[in-house]
């Protein structure tokens, strides 16, 4: 008698469906996908920074200083906005670490605070635009200024949309220590937005 189980015998097929996925690294495909997406976004920002610096190199010798005369950069308002966004990165980290420890209250509080801080940043940015006194049509400096800060503002808006969905899911109990990738991936994107703003702030407002 053959020692192999026949197809009709109980236990002949112990596994149904495709075999389990084997990961060659400790990074999950979702997290890796987010890192690849961020890499493409860095290249997008890099193109805008290239245009900004090119404009600065070409135009600065003609007037001797940067930005051109008649243009004021609200450095201190932008500094406050920077502190707000850095604080939101800390609250996002708090939310992420809380859910990994099973602390749902910490997750919810961290996400709500992050959402409020991000919304405050974006609202301040919009108010700043209305008080600048110049528009994109005025000079190339104005175009590159609004281009860089506006590109970042668009990413903040996307991040706030992700945060809103995460917050709703958090209050519905969708996350747990075993299933927290939604929070982790959203947090990675938000940290990227924060770091990119620091680069924008130093480049556009300080240099």
Care to describe what's here?
There is one protein chain. The chain has a single domain, classed as Cytochrome c oxidase, subunit III, four-helix bundle (Four Helix Bundle (Hemerythrin (Met), subunit A)). Helix 1 packs antiparallel against helix 4 and helix 3 packs antiparallel against helix 4. It contains five helices and no strands. The longest helix has 35 residues. It has 207 residues and is mainly α.
Give a brief description.
This protein is an all-alpha fold and 207 residues long.
First and last CA, distance: 84 Å
As for the number of domains, it is: 1
Shape field: elongated
- Total helical elements: 5
- Poorly predicted regions are 5-9
């Amino acid at each position: 008698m053959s020692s192999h189980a026949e197809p009709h015998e109980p236990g002949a097929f112990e596994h149904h469906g495709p075999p389990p996925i084997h990961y060659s690294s400790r990074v999950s495909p979702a997290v890796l996908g987010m890192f690849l997406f961020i890499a493409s976004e860095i290249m997008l920002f890099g193109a805008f920074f290239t245009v900004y610096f090119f404009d600065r190199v070409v135009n600065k010798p003609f007037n001797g200083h940067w930005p051109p005369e008649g243009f004021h950069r609200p450095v201190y308002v932008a500094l406050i906005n920077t502190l707000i966004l850095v604080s939101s990165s800390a609250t996002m980290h708090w939310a992420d670490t809380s859910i990994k420890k099973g602390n749902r209250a910490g997750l919810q509080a961290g996400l709500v605070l992050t959402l409020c801080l991000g919304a405050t940043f974006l609202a301040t940015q919009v108010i700043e635009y209305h008080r600048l006194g110049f528009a994109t049509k005025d000079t190339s400096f104005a175009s590159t200024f609004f281009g860089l800060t506006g590109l970042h503002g668009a990413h903040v808006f996307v991040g706030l949309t992700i945060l809103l969905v995460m917050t709703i899911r958090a209050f519905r109990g969708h996350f747990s220590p075993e299933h927290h990738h939604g929070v982790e991936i959203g947090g990675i994107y938000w940290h990227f937005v924060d770091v990119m703003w620091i680069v924008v702030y130093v480049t556009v407002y300080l240099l």
